[in-house]
Design goal:
Length: 484
């Protein structure tokens, strides 16, 4: 009988096997630990970069007015993004850059810098991060000092490169409606005159009776209505209402102008998921070969009060210069003011200087918040000395304004509101003065200013000096492209 012997493994063999196993496992475990660390670091980097991206996009969109309000609104805006200990500082430097003008005078080139500091907690473990946002226009001031064009100059292209698919761009085609509106109202007035004459037993002759209205004037009301909210989107509508001022008595006893009523056109209707700025490319009304009374009104009754609106009313020239004749001829002299102004044509016996434009709100019951969120800017005001850093630049702007004869009498007070209400003579049309309106240059910082933006972020409680010692996490621009 053969006996089986089962000795098992000796302790030496076990130790050798374990040693070999450990030698083989060390790189695998090391790799796993390294991978876990890399994954964790990657997630932290992702959290940081996503928050930095959120910060930079928010800075691009926030109103300059908010950043200037260092007492509450500015810090509060970033607190709403999940930040704590937010501080906003603003400084202006007008000593570092300047340029020499053609006449030898020196113009200072000031630039603004905004710094926002704060902390936030990111990731599953809510790790603390410190950040610094710096938004500065220094690079653009420096570029201008070296001979480049001032990119923050509103007078050189505020209305260029506008994307009508992203913003409400109401083009200056109103002149296309002026003549048809007059013709339509003239037809109605002739009908009213015929009824009056027939009632009084008088002969009616349309060939000669049309001369009754040859000197009549009219009114045009340009109404911009905005309604909606962030949830459903926004509808922007532009409506033109024409009325006639004929004072002849109608068959019913009221004036023929009033009896003729209103001719209405809707040249612009568009829906936006997000409401951007509204641009009204304005030109004056020529009605019956005469400048008409013009009114621009704003209907905000259907708008959410939290929506901020900027409306730019841009008075244009080329769109109503088609009747221009050479200033070097006697015929042309009759069309041009003094025979020298090549931009604006005359309408009948009237000259450009006689034009009056009234602006008003259609609503009398707007909340204070809705009023504060609504601003109108236009380029028809005579330049203000407050808009320019030097007297020389202000004087040059006034000279340019005078040369172009933009002598439009723009009114937006209670009297203007009363005028437009009286056009309709109807208590259902309630108008009042526009609350916030200013020259186009006033919109420079809030709507066209160009800034370079940098964001620094580090883990832990880090001061500004230490943050700026490293490279920015993200860089971008507000309002335009970067300067190489």
């Amino acid at each position: 009988m053969v006996r089986k012997v089962n000795k098992g493994f000796s302790i030496v063999e076990v130790l050798i096997a374990v040693t070999i196993f450990l030698i083989l496992m060390v790189p695998i475990v090391t790799s796993l630990v390294s991978s876990m660390k890399t994954t964790t670091a990657g997630k932290e980097l992702q959290y940081r970069n996503e928050y930095a991206q959120n910060l930079i996009e928010s800075v691009k969109e926030v109103s300059i007015d908010v950043l200037n309000d260092t007492s509450s609104a500015g810090p509060g805006y970033f607190t709403g993004l999940g930040s704590t200990g937010v501080a906003v500082t603003h400084s202006t430097d007008d000593t570092k850059y300047s340029k020499v003008n053609a006449d030898g005078s020196v113009t200072k080139l000031p630039f603004d810098t905004y710094q926002i500091t704060g902390k936030t907690n990111l990731g599953v473990e809510k790790a603390e991060y410190s950040y610094l946002i710096e938004m500065s226009s220094e690079k653009y001031a420096e570029a201008e000092s070296l001979g480049g064009m001032d990119p923050n100059n509103l007078k050189s292209g505020i209305v260029q490169d506008l994307d009508k698919s992203k913003m409400a761009l109401i083009s200056a085609n109103f002149a296309n409606y002026d003549t048809p509106a007059y013709d339509a109202l003239l037809t109605k007035k002739m009908s009213e005159l015929r009824k009056r004459k027939e009632k009084n037993g008088q002969p009616y002759n349309p060939v000669s009776d049309v001369d009754t209205f040859k000197n009549d004037t009219g009114n045009r009301v340009i109404e911009i209505a905005v309604k909606g909210n962030a949830g459903v989107g926004y509808d922007v509508t532009c409506t033109l209402n024409y009325t006639d001022n004929c004072g002849e008595a109608s068959e019913s006893g009221i004036t023929i102008g009033k009896a003729a009523g209103i001719v209405e056109y809707k040249p612009y209707v568009k829906h936006f998921d997000e409401l951007s700025d509204i641009y009204l490319m304005y030109n004056v009304c020529v009605y019956n070969n005469q400048y008409a009374n013009d009114f621009i009104t704003f209907d905000l009754s259907g708008l959410d009060e939290n929506t901020k609106i900027n409306v730019f009313v841009i008075e244009t020239a080329s769109d109503y210069s088609t009747d221009l004749k050479s200033a070097n001829t006697s015929e042309g002299a009759n069309w041009l003011k003094g025979g020298t102004n090549g931009l604006y044509r005359k309408a009948g016996a009237a000259v450009r200087d006689s034009v009056e434009i009234n602006m008003a709100l259609k609503n009398a019951s707007l909340t204070d918040k809705k009023r504060d969120n609504f601003h109108v800017y236009h380029n028809m005001l005579k330049p203000s000395v407050d808009d320019y850093p030097t007297t020389a630049e202000y004087n040059a702007a006034v000279a340019e304004w005078n040369n172009h004869s933009k002598n439009l009498d723009v009114k937006y007070d209670s009297a203007a509101a009363t005028k437009v209400q009286n056009i309709y003579n109807d208590t259902s049309h309630i108008y009042e003065a526009v609350s916030h309106i200013a020259g186009l240059n006033k919109a420079q910082d809030a709507n066209r200013g160009l800034y370079e933006i940098k964001v620094w972020m580090q883990k832990g409680s880090v001061d500004v000096t230490s943050l700026k010692a490293g490279d920015p996490v993200l860089q971008g621009t507000r309002g335009g492209g970067e300067i190489d």
